[in-house]
Amino acid sequence: MSNWQSICKENDINQDLPEAALFGTEQVAVVKAWDGKIYVVSNVDPRTQQGVMSRGIVGDREVDGIHRATLASPIYKEVYDLETGKCYASDDYTLPVYASRVTDGVIEVDLDSKTPA
């Protein structure tokens, strides 16, 4: 089952400057990375449980010759893969990732797709 919700217009998000959105009690961070792709992840830092990921640092990491978009926590600087949620510093943390899409210029998130749940 899908639960697609509109967040904002794509042109409202600046590249490399994440924004926060709130759906009930669910906090998400919306990121337009250097590759132009939109990513939606949990706004809650997996290590500290604070809603700060929308203030994180957008970057990239080369993995097997491929550059992957990343987001670093603004607190302890753990770096997370924006597509998979994998933490490159520790297997103890994973950043939840949501399915997202752009429809007619509007960013949408599937709130039922959070991985890991």
TrEMBL record:
Keywords assigned: 2Fe-2S, Iron, Iron-sulfur, Metal-binding, Nitrate assimilation, Oxidoreductase
Residue ranges of domain Rieske in the record: 5-109
Pfam families: Rieske_2
InterPro entries: NirD, Rieske-like_NirD, Rieske_2Fe-2S, Rieske_2Fe-2S_sf
Cleavable signal peptide: none
NCBIfam families: nirD_assim_sml (TIGR02378)
Full protein name: Nitrite reductase
Source organism (scientific name): Dermabacter hominis 1368
